Structures are given as C-alpha cells and as structure tokens.
Amino acid sequence: MLSDEYRLSNIVEDKDIKTLSKAQFPGPHCPLFGAVMTASYIEDLTLLIIGTEECTYYGKDFAMIRQNGKDRVYSAVLEQHDITFGCEEDLKNIIKEIDRKEKPKALMVITTCVVELIGEDVESILRSLRKEVDTKLLIVKTEHFKCNSHIDGVKKALEQLASLMIPMEKKERTVNILGFKYLGIEKTELYKELRRNNVDISMTIPTKVNIESIQKAVASSLNIVVEPTAMGLAEEMKNQLDIPYIVFPMALDVDKIKDAYEQIGDILDIDFDYIVKEKYNTVNDNLITAKQYLRDKTFIYGNTPFNCFEFCLFLVELGMVPIIIQCRELMKDDRKVIDELIDRGIDPYIVRMANIAPLRRIYDELSPNYYFGHESPMTLAKHNIIQVVTDNCAKKLGFEKITEVIDTIINEKGIFSLMGGDNIVLEDKVKDKIKNLKNVPKPMKDLLMNMKEMPQGMKEALLTVDEKDSLIDMMKSHGNRMERRH
Amino acid sequence: MKLYRDNPIASDRMGILWALNGIEDAVIIEFGPAGTTHFSIEGLMQFGIDIKAKTFTTHMDEHDVTFGNEDRIIDAIIEVDLIEKPKYLFVIGSSITSIIGIDLESVRLQVQDKIRSKIILLPDCDFQNDYRYGVEMTLKILVDEVVKNAPVLEKSQYYNILGLGIYDYNRSSDLYEIRRLMKDNFSLELATTFMLDTNLESIEQASRAMINIVIHEEGIAAAEILREQYNQPYICVTPYGIKGTKKWLKCIGDLLNISYNSTDNNELELIAYKESDLKRRISKLDNNRVYINNNIHNKCLEDYLSDLGFKKTNDNKKSIINFSDGIEALKKPNVIQINYPSFGQENGYQYTPYMGYRGAHYLAQKIYNTITKAEVLN
Fold it and tell me: At what angle do helices B265-283 and B241-256 cross, to 10 degrees?
C-alpha cells in the first residue's frame, strides 16, 4: 500500500501529498465548519449561511451545540430557481429583513460550495447593500473544492473581523492575543507574565470577545499572534490600523519562545530575562530526561493542534522516529522544517490526513510504539499502540507548552484525557475493579490499566458498574464520539 | 431562496443518507467534497444511535469540478469493492455533481463489470424536495434493487415495517411497541424495517412477510411495489391513541383475514380510563388549542389530538400545547418533542412509546403533565 512515492523526500508541493486510499473516511472538515466554529465564539455576531439545506442544516446544528442553543445563525437555502437564475434579489431582501428585524451589530455572510459554483457574486451584492442596511456586513467564502480542510474557513473568518475595527488612539502597554481558541487565557504563562509587568490584554480572539471588545481592541499597541490561522487578521490590522504584531511560536522550540519574549520585551519595554533564567534551563533539563525515555521509539503522526512537521521535528529531536506523518496540507513555511528532517536522515511516509480506515489495515505491519492524535483507543489498544492526544497542550502559551507536551507523552495521555477536567491518578481500588471485570477483552483491560490518569467521571462509572456487565459498548460509544469530534 | 431562523427542513439527499445509515452493513460512497460527508456523519449523532453503516467520500478539487472528472469515483468504487467486499455498493452524488452534470449511470456502466459488488445508484439532489421524499425514493430503490434481486420466499409468519427510520424521534420505543402488538395479537415476527436496526440480508428476505406495516407515508410507494410484486397487502395508519390502535389492529386483522388475540383487558381498561380523564380535562380548558410543527405531517396524530378534544391552530403562540422538535422542547415548557432536530438529549430508553396502547397511556400522561406545566408557568 505504501510505496516510496509517499516518502517525505518526494514531497515538493501540496499536490504531492497523496491519500492512502481513494475512498476516504471520515474525510476532512470543510471551511464552512471552520468559519462557523470561529464565528460562534463571538456571542453577538449574527451569521447567515447561504447554501443547500444540508450545508445550512449542519452549520446551524454545529453552532447551536457550541452555543448551547443561543446561536444567531440564519440559513438562506438555495432552491432550483436560484441555481439556474441566481439569487441576487432574494438575498438582498433577506439581508434587509434580518437587518430590520434583528438589528444585528454585524452580519457575517458565509457562502458555500454551490453559491461559488454558480458564480453568484455575493461580495458585490453586499457592497451594494452597505448604504441600505445599518448592520456591518462581512463575507466568508467557504467552497471546499478549493482547499483541503476547515483551516481556510478559520483564517477567512478571523481576517474579516478586521473590518469591524475603526482607527482610534493607541493605549500604551495594551496588547491583543490573536488566535487563542480556548477558555482560560488567564491561566497561561504568557498572560500571567504580561499582567505581572502591568500589560493590559485588551482582546483575546476568537475567545473572550464580542463585537464591542473587537472594536476596542484597535487601541492596543501590539498584537501577539499565537496561532497561524490568525496571521491574516494580524496582517489586516497592521495594514489598516497600523498595529504591529509579533508571532509567539506554536513550535516547540525553546529558543524561538525565548526570542518571542525578548521581542515583546523590546516593544513594550519589559525585561523578560528573569523568565529565561527561571524556565529556559528547566525546560531543557526536561527535554534531556524525555530523550532518555523516548529514544528510538517509533510513531505515527495523526493530528495535533501543532504544525505536523514542526511537531515531528520536536519528536525527532527527542530521539523518536516517525513512520507515517498524516498531513492536512502543505504550508508555505513547511519547506525549511521538511529540509531539516531530511538532512537528519528522516524520510517517513507522508499521507493526507483524516483517512484512518486504510491506515488501520497496516498498523500491525508498521507496529509503531505511539500514535499521536485522535483514533479509536480500542483499535489502537488491539495493536498495542500507545495513544497520545495533545489537544490540551495548545491551551498553554510559553515554555509551559513544551513541559505540557513532554508530560502528555511520558504519561501517555490518550483520548480519554479530554473527558472531564479533573484528572485523577488511578487508585488501587479502580485497578482492582478493572482486573475483576468479567466481560472485558484483554486489550481493553490493558488500555484501562495503562491509563496513568483517568477522568473523574470515567472512574466513577467504572467503580459503579457491575463486574459482569459488558463495557465494550460503552467504550466503543465513547471512542466513536471522541473520534468523530475530530 | 428561503430564509430560516431555525434549522431548515432537511433535504432529499439527507433523507437518503439517513435511511441508508439505519442499515447496519450498508456501504455508501459519496462523490463530492469531503466536508459534506464529514458533516453528515457528525449530524447522525443527534439521533443518538451507534451507526454501523460505512460512508466514504471521494473529495473533489477544482480540477474535478472544472473538467467533470470521474476518476475519483471510479477509483473509489474499485477500491471499496476490493477492501470492504460489500454485496451492494450504494453510490450517491452531491449538490456539486448534480450541478456540473456528472452522469453516475455512465460511471456505473464503466465500472460494474470490473467489480463484484452490485452498484446501486441513488438519485441526484434536485434542490426542491425534502427528506421524506429522499426516504421514499430510497425505500423504493431498496425494494427494486435488493428485494427483487433476491429469490422469492414462501410467505411465513413475518411482517415488514416501512416508513420508520433513525430520523424518527421516538423510533426505539415505537418500534418496540409495534413489535409487541404484532407478536401478542397476530403471532407475527418482524422481517425487516428496511432502514432501522436491520441489515441487507433481512431486506433481501422481505418477500417472506405476510403484510407490510407502513408507519409514515414515505413508505407507501415501496409498499405498493411489494404488493404488486409479492401480493403483500399493506396498511398505512399510525396507531395513536386507543381508538387509532384499535383501528390499526382491526385493519391488520382484516387484511390477514385472521381474528386477533386481544391485549390484556385490565391494562386496556386502565389506559382507557386515563385517556377519558385527559379528555375530561381538555374539555374544561379555556384554551384547548394545539399546535403541530409544520414539519410533521401526520393525519393520524391530528385525528388523535382532535379526538382528545384539542383544536388545531397554526399559531404556536396561541396554543396551550405544542408538538414540535427538540430545539423548541428545550426552550419552552409546553412543548412535547415529536421530531428532530435535537441536541444534547438522550432518547434511547425504549419503553416510552407514543404509538400503540402503551403509547396511548404514555402520551396521555405526557400531555396531561405538559398542560399542567403550561398552566403553572403562564
């Protein structure tokens, strides 16, 4: 199934990355998903999705779940007549109706595959409406046949937010954090260090924002970009509003993190030397310890919140050996990292991500020690592969991110580490219970016994379950759901 | 173009995929952008079931769209045939392939001789019909391509169900109650439902059934084909309430020309008492208007509610009680959920039917309590 044409050394451009099979399951998410995900962080932003019943129904569904039924998503569903003759007049009337009835502060219009396919120029339609409606109109195009994943939709949705901003006087020592997609920015190292030096964080986007805070963010004197999808927004804010930005690296590279702190320090006039003294050497010591444990261990890269090649280079530096890297799409900055991997004699197979079905058929043949990313824990357990899921590591910013990744690998935190917030170390009584369970196959018992941490809810479920009950369905259901969430 | 504040009405294509995903061993390939498939697989989670059918996607890029390239679907069919070895391979296009005019029939002709699976083509989306039409088409296709593909079996003590799918809100409990009534009253076993907790082998054996029970109208067209082909009579009545269930059982008995065993009289008496009690209460209400969500088309439900003493209204703000979807049910105390969409709600417990005698009991109780809630909170 895998031939040399899949090797990293043969990848020059994105089209060189092949799918492992022609029939994909489940396939990547589309840009519509990315755009709705990003926009639904902003509580008072109204969305209008234009497309088929299917795209609008599922887009609405997704937003509703994310926002606990409090979403502001409208659907404009195309009918046969619209496909043939266009939908300009109808769309204008719909936008005017939303403007009149809901009076939204801003309306993000999201077009989907069919709208772009029939060549409807929604951008011009919105431009022609700007004087007729009070709401600010934004547009995000999400045709999936022009890209390979949801990332494009995330980038475009973020970029559009710049159009909500109007120039205003700058405030000293006030910054925005761009691209942080999780709750709990206050708990991150970067945030704490900024606050410790009396820096105000005006806006963290896309989380913790509403339209008012987005507008006020213009007063900040610096943007700190913590995730590549926010680069477009940073560029827009630099060009339109003259706000400089620095990139705080996602890469797990101590020197780049040190440099980023120094750059922020230079702009905001802060001496961050103390952080470097405190943390730089500690992280380096952790890396040396991890190397001893992970040397020569092999892995399949599935997905992480990090850039796939940068993450793999980090693991290679720890002495690990990639067998397969599943790649979403080749980014323009990947070349340098790819060359570095090849220079080190690392030449794994590269396949397009989100197609795990064919990969499962060769797990035994490849027999990796680790799988990084979302997969059914049951499937991996059957092949004696240790699952590591690093989603929670992206919630860290700074040197702490590297520490968290190492901890996640060493402690073999799999997909169940994402369930619940309070991880509890396995107690003897839980282990005894697992041992005594009757209708549980050995791989599942091994999986449970090897969990060094377990969410509280799962521990309670295990302790209360009857020893003769079958856990297979329960575990499968959890596994499938977690897998599909990816 | 139609504007929706809530979920739009699901399309024919969605109905096709919902119907097929109720068949455990169905293997489906979609020719379209991958995100459509990923979204639809996740969308099935709202139904709260463990999907065993396999849905693959080919994905499409700009080149495929511009030049109408069919290579991806041909390669995918050959690969899935080789690896999954399904007896039947369902192939469906997408909105994009419909617009650019991909001819899936020509794809089938090109590839059918090269594979062992029988390709079953599903209709293109037509941008005008809803999911019930998609379900109707799928049921007809299953009868034409799967049942007729199999040997005709001698009739025995079986029945089929048509028009009850994973997308029906109370399907687990209603299916359980229907099976109970059919077993207790006619000693018949379920052969297949065609699209719920079933498999392709059971569907192939549908000709052995003595009768087809059509629960919702989308099953009628397939039932007509089965009647013509296998001389199977069918009944299309949804058994709501005592009166509705009695009528349903009588129709089945008449069609089969057998007298049926009556259900436990003590239980029936209690249910009749509860239903009468509810009727008395409704007759005393100042507001006895009931609203049924526009997406629900079921005359039997309307007849049942009318028989209880409700008057139907098209204004959900003037009704005392609403029958609607899970979203409205989450937000309003006077809503009884009867269809999807829904989120964050489990409904797997299978002993709370709306249909049949026990459904009459449970629904009477639910309506009674919902009226109380509506009165307290108003």
Answer: 140
Distance to chain A for B35, nearest Cα, Å: 4
Put simply, whether B2 touches A (Cβ < 8 Å) is yes
C-alpha torsion sign, points B170, B171, B172, B175:
positive
Buried b (16+ CB within 10 A) or exposed e, B30-67: bbbbbbbbbbbbbbbbbbebebebbbbbbbbbeebbee
Amino acid at A309: F
Mean pLDDT over residues A26-53, rounded? 94
pLDDT value at residue A430: 78
Give the contacts of A232 (CB within 8 A, at least 6 positions apart). Answer: A155, A156, A158, A159
Cβ-nearest to A24 among B6, B57, B95:
B57
- Quick one: tokens of A89? 């007049």
* Omega before B333 within 30 of 0, i.e. cis: no
Query: From CA A336, how far away is CA A355, in angstroms rounded?
Result: 26
Sheet holding A174-180, edge to edge: A200-206, A174-180, A222-225, A245-247
> Which of A52, A58, A357 has its CB closest to that of B43?
A58
pLDDT band of residue A484 (cuts 50, 70, 90) is very low
Burial of B378 (0-12, 13-18, 19+ CB in 10 A): exposed
Nearest-5° Cα angle at B338, B335 to B344: 80
Amino acid, single-letter form, for residue A247? V
Indicate whether A475 pLDDT > 90: no
Instruction: Look at B3 and A94 and tell me if their CB atoms are within 8 Å.
Output: yes
**Which of A13, A142, A144, A152 to substitute to test the interface with B, most B CBs within 10 Å?**
A144
Q: Using a CB-CB distance cutoff of 8 angstroms, which residues of chain B are in contact with residue A33? A: 35, 38-39
Residue B61 contacts A where some CB pair is shorter than 8 Å: yes
Query: Is residue B77 a contact partner of residue B31, using CB atoms and an 8 Å limit?
Result: no
Question: Which residues in A346-370 are b (16+ Cβ under 10 Å) and which e?
Answer: bebbbbbbbbbbbbeebbeeeebbb
Q: Which amino acid is at A25?
A: F
Residue, of A92 and A148, whose pLDDT is higher: A92
- Write the pLDDT tens digit of every residue in A411-433: 988 887 776 554 555 677 777 77
B125: chain A residues, CB-CB within 8 Å: 52
- Chain B residues lying within 8 Å of A64, measured CB to CB: 327, 343
Tell me the nearest-neighbour CA distance from B310 into chain A, angstroms: 30
Residues of A in contact with B72 (CB under 8 A): 22
Rounded to the nearest angstrom, the minimum Cα separation between A80 and chain B is: 5
How far apart (Å, rounded) are the C-alpha atoms in residues A160 and A139? 7
Q: Which residues of chain B have pLDDT under 50?
A: none
C-alpha–C-alpha distance, residues A123 and A91, integer Å: 12
Sort B283 into a burial class: Cβ within 10 Å, 0-12 / 13-18 / 19+: exposed
Q: Do B159 and B191 contact (CB within 8 A), yes or no?
A: yes
> Closest Cα to residue A252, out of A284, A277, A224, A285?
A284
| pLDDT (0 to 100) of residue A486 | 42
CA distance linking residue A114 with residue A99, whole number of Å: 24
Of the pLDDT bands very low, low, confident and very high (cuts 50, 70, 90), residue A482 is very low
Q: pLDDT confidence of A20, banded at 50, 70, 90?
A: confident
Does any CB of chain A come closer than 8 Å to the CB of residue B1? yes
Q: Is the pLDDT of residue A485 over 70?
A: no
Percent of chain A with pLDDT over 90: 70
ipTM of the complex: 0.93
The pLDDT score that the predictor gives to residue B297 is: 79
